[in-house]
Amino acid sequence: MRAPRTIDLFAPADLPARNAPCPTVQPVAARSLSPRAIQPSRAPLWLGVHVPELSGEAQQGTPRSLLALAARAQRFTPRVSLAPPDGVLLEVRSSLHLFGGVEGLREALLGECAELKRTVALAFAPTPLAALVGARAERPFMVLDAAQLTGSLAPVPLTALRWPQESIERLACLGVRTIGQVLRLPRAGFAQRFGAMRLTDLDRLTGRANDPRERFEAPARFRRRRELSYESASHAQLAAALRPLLDELGGFLTARQCGVLALECLFWHRRHAPTRCELRLGEPQADAQRLVKLLDERLRTLVLPEPVRACELRAGLPVSRRLHSAGLWQPGERGGRAEASGVELIERLRVRLGDEAIETLELVPDHRPEAAWRRAAPGACAGAASAPPPQDGPGAQGARRKAPRPLWLLPAPRRLRQHDGLPRYRGALYLEGEPERIESGWWDGRDVARDYYNARDARGRRLWLYRERERPHRWFLHGVYG
Length: 482
What we know:
Number of helices: 12
Number of strands: 19
Shape: elongated
Helix content: 25-40%
Distance between the termini: 126 Å
Structural class: alpha+beta
Mean pLDDT: 82
Low-confidence stretches: 1-40, 381-400
């Protein structure tokens, strides 16, 4: 009988020398448990939201309340998908650290749903379909590891998949009533009897196949319509009917950190064309309470041809707004600013007197003084209004340095008398400083070529006048300093 042969696992070259120091060996377990070695999992994590109140509603399209919930959910993650008629999906792996983990995110989302007065069921899973199925189940469902997904789905009933009732009944006749039981069936036979689409559903459920979801995009503009329970011509009742729509508009704008400059209300009648009511604001606004007050003022002056059966609120395109912080001093007190009160005054005047009664002035990038400003509506945003006059524009000669200009310009330049080539206005005038030459406007047919001077009259008043560069070199008074 042959003796067993002993095999040495180390070659002689691998053995350390007898007198050589023993090498330091770091334990593998210590390296694997090092905090820096632990990397967070980047696998997707989906949060399924199920609204049981919408399950039994037979609606065409996506319910409005589900759209509102999806818009609110965008504050947690940009990857939001709809699962109509009663589900919303959120990919939240990258958002967990912002809300204190899974429990913090769950509590925050439940708070948003409470503001919408909706009762929801939540579930976490590595795949979107598993998160949605887990939310539909009548038991808590939270799976953070893909290795535990199949075992957690095993007791969930097949009805949570929402397959056709015929397929559910056929599987029930075979004794298959849960997802775990259907996953144990032979794949080829299952696809042959129930279709390849059902097998694909199971693969998407367990993560064996990709499950792409279309990202939800909130509407760019706000538009809501409300049917009244009874026809009414009372301005107070119409304002009360519009108040919930304005509150919803405030939330719509606050979520986007934007405001609106114009609102339009349509009041629908039975026999007449809809009555329009427009509201223009002095600055981008998102405060619902302020919009309610202004719209109430406008409704008091509105004449209705007959009672209203429905009202519709349309908002203009959202624009960026400047966020104000409350000051220590009230407007009118020492150190207090009156900017907000000034804007409110302009808005109230426009509501009571009309949009054409209030105007403002804005700058235009033009060297010619009479063309460097124009009338505009308060709150109108023009890109040229804040742009400085061009230093090297077409046809501009001179104007290399910013010369002082008077605040008051005459409606039309006034021609002055001359004596020995010098201007006179209620006596002799004394010219001061160097002239400012302006040559501009050839592109629109109103070209000018002037030399502007600062002058003082006998009483010491400062005037702004110019001399034509072309013959006959006349003098004109164009402005007066304050």
